């Protein structure tokens, strides 16, 4: 069986692998999701007991429901789309900090699992369940149904905590928060379990778009609130709700700071981060849970845009407020952590996420922080221990992983769980550590890929752009190869990583007779804030210039790259970049494949688009300069190159109108192109559709190179 079939059947070799790993606050248990085998997507809930290193199955879909497919509430389907989560079974869970109780939805029904005894019971609810969460004491469970927030008490009483009809929801993240701001939740329990901080989302002003799959004319169009660039966003407010009916509004200048980016509530009271619409200024606010009044704890500012660090803000045990952001003065160019404004991590450390607190050991003071960060090499991520108590010599930083690759972590008490992926072996390997010693591993049942990819990772051009080249495994030096530039290139995402999974599909392309090239241009994370933010208001010029310059630099090092035969392919932002390359630089790119491309940025969402391009009303020329539709309408050159456009007709993120409008413009100007509409597919093209397209794409490129 060849790669496309294997990848489709194994969900790109991830079925059977552990994921969603969390650790009890006392380090006693490690909780995770995993499906039974390499071709079974029905994920089950598991616990690893740290003391015995034994795994226990807590809940599996087959034992709870006959069939959970097709029964997901619309809100749950939308949440999974925002999370890019294409699994069946138990897709998510939430637990109390001590990992005694977990709650999870399955087929719209609510289940409660006792993680100590292993007992699982279904809990009666008033409707299909979304995002159930136990309170920190484990006695109650909150959930959302039909946009209303409910709480189930220990005696089984189901109480409506907050709800309205119409375009208002309670306890859910709005589209912008989940798609662009990394906030997927809409409510947060108080540490004592007696109240909830809940978001109220009013979408009545947001434009309505109507999505319809033409292959199913019997089904009515779906209406979605979509805040396109320049349009009205949802109105988001926060409220403190006591379980006995008390209600306190949270006050901040919502007109100036409409985006609620993050909420954290542990000891010390709630902390929230809010941003201006263009995201050049933000505030970290503490909330008085008695009055709802807020106080500024930190300011975030950048003339381009601010980029808060995931896992911040939070209170340190000594009361200081931990904030993450850019350090861009006195010659520094870094992403760092600060405690009450004092620098906590060195500028050499590019901080990506604060995972949590680590026990500092017997006799020690404040607990340490577990941080995911890069140091020097953007293709790698490592775990670092950061001492929060600053001595005379500054904060103490200690690396916990050193092997090349990409390392993620979970922590609780004195237990650290490390997920490590590298170029040397397949998949992500999870190990459990206590007091610096490995005590267990979490088993993986994922299939092994049929080959090991061989990417050559390097930094090229004067800007030291991260890049990679893959040759066919049977390549003979001196044989010139057509080049496939396989790209993404957009903000917030890297492709050039030191992990084997990133290169499996690209090795298949290489083995089909190509030199495959991937470049992380400026605008992508991992290098430095200035590297990311130089694209502000000029995304197209910077990104395309970097890709072209990297190609030339790589050809200078790799003479077997034939730059007279170059194709480009990409999805989403990468689809836009592929279309841009073919239309603007046809002398370099002979053909392109644009999957789900953003062809007119005025049709894409507010938070993402305005962050980089500004408001359409103030920057009409910038939007026109970045529009593939307007570019396609320009007079056709003699070297016009063909484009293959692919789009899911059920895509609610980059709607199919993008591709349809580009196709119309290409047709009107006589430019060669083809369109593949994907019936019922969303932006994820789940269910193996992406793999099934590979041979059609291969045939298109071969014919045009």
UniProtKB/TrEMBL annotation:
SUPFAM superfamilies: alpha/beta-Hydrolases (SSF53474), DPP6 N-terminal domain-like (SSF82171)
Domain of life: Bacteria
Domain Dipeptidylpeptidase IV N-terminal: 109-407
Peptidase S9 prolyl oligopeptidase catalytic domain sequence ranges: 505-705
PANTHER family from the UniProt entry: DIPEPTIDYL PEPTIDASE 9, PROTEASE FAMILY S9B,C DIPEPTIDYL-PEPTIDASE IV-RELATED
UniProt name for this protein: Prolyl oligopeptidase family serine peptidase
């Amino acid at each position: 069986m060849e790669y496309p079939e294997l990848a489709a059947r194994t969900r790109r070799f991830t079925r059977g692998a552990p994921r969603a790993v969390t650790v009890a606050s006392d380090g006693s248990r490690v909780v995770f999701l995993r499906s039974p085998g390499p071709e079974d997507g029905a994920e089950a809930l598991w616990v690893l007991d740290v003391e015995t290193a034994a795994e226990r199955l807590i809940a599996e879909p087959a034992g709870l429901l006959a069939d959970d497919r097709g029964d997901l509430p619309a809100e749950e389907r939308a949440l999974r789309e925002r999370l890019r989560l294409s699994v069946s079974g138990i897709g998510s869970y939430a637990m109390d900090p001590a990992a005694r109780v977990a709650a999870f939805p399955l087929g719209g029904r609510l289940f409660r699992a006792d993680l100590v005894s292993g007992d699982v019971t279904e809990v009666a609810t008033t409707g299909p369940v979304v995002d159930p969460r136990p309170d920190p004491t484990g006695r109650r469970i909150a959930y959302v149904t039909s946009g209303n927030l409910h709480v189930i008490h220990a005696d089984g009483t189901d109480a409506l905590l907050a709800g309205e009809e119409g375009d208002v929801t309670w306890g859910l993240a709005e589209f912008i928060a989940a798609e662009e701001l990394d906030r997927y939740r809409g409510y947060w329990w108080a540490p004592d379990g007696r109240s909830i901080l809940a978001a109220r989302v009013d979408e009545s002003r947001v434009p309505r778009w109507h999505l319809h799959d033409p292959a199913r004319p019997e089904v009515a169009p779906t209406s979605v609130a979509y805040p396109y660039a320049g349009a009205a966003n949802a109105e988001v407010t926060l409220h403190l709700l006591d379980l006995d009916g008390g209600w306190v509004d949270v006050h901040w200048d919502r007109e100036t700071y409409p985006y609620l980016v993050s909420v954290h509530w542990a000891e010390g009271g709630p902390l929230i981060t809010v941003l201006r619409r263009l995201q050049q200024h933000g505030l970290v606010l503490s909330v008085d849970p008695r009055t709802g009044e807020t106080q500024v704890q930190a300011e975030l500012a950048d003339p381009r845009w601010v980029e808060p660090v995931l896992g911040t803000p939070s209170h340190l045990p000594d009361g200081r407020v931990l904030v993450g952001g850019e350090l861009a003065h006195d010659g520094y160019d870094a992403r760092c952590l600060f405690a009450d404004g004092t620098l906590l991590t060195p500028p050499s450390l590019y901080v990506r996420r604060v995972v949590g607190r680590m026990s500092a050991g017997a006799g020690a003071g404040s607990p340490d922080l577990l941080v995911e960060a890069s140091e020097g090499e953007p293709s790698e991520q490592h775990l670092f221990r950061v001492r929060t108590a600053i001595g005379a010599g500054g904060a103490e930083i200690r690396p916990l992983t050193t092997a090349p690759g990409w390392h993620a972590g979970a922590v609780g008490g004195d237990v650290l769980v490390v997920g490590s992926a590298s170029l040397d072996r397949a998949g992500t390997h999870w190990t459990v550590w206590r007091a610096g010693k490995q005590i267990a591993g979490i088993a993986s049942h994922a299939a092994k890929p049929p080959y090991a990819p061989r990417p050559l990772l390097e930094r090229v051009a004067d800007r030291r752009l991260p890049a990679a080249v893959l040759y066919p495994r049977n390549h003979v030096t001196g044989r010139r190869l057509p080049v496939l530039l396989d790209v993404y290139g957009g903000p917030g995402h890297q492709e050039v990583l030191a992990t084997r999974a990133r290169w499996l599909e690209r090795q298949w392309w290489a083995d089909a007779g190509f030199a495959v090239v991937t470049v992380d241009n400026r605008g992508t994370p991992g290098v430095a804030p200035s590297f990311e933010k130089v694209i502000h208001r000029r995304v197209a010029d910077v990104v395309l210039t970097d890709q072209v310059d990297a190609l030339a630099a790589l050809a200078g090092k790799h003479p077997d790259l034939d730059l007279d035969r170059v194709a480009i392919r990409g999805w989403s932002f990468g689809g836009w970049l592929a279309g841009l390359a073919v239309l603007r630089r046809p002398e370099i790119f002979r053909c392109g494949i644009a999957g789900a491309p953003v062809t007119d940025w005025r049709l894409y969402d507010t938070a993402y688009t305005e962050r980089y391009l500004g408001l359409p009303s103030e920057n009409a020329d910038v939007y026109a300069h970045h529009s593939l539709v307007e570019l396609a309408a320009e007079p056709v050159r003699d070297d016009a190159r063909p484009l293959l456009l692919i789009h899911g007709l059920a895509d609610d993120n980059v709607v199919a109108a993008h591709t349809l409008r580009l196709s119309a413009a290409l047709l009107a100007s006589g430019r060669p192109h083809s369109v593949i509409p994907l019936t019922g597919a969303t932006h994820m093209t789940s269910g193996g559709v992406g793999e099934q397209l590979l041979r059609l794409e291969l045939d298109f490129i071969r014919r045009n190179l």
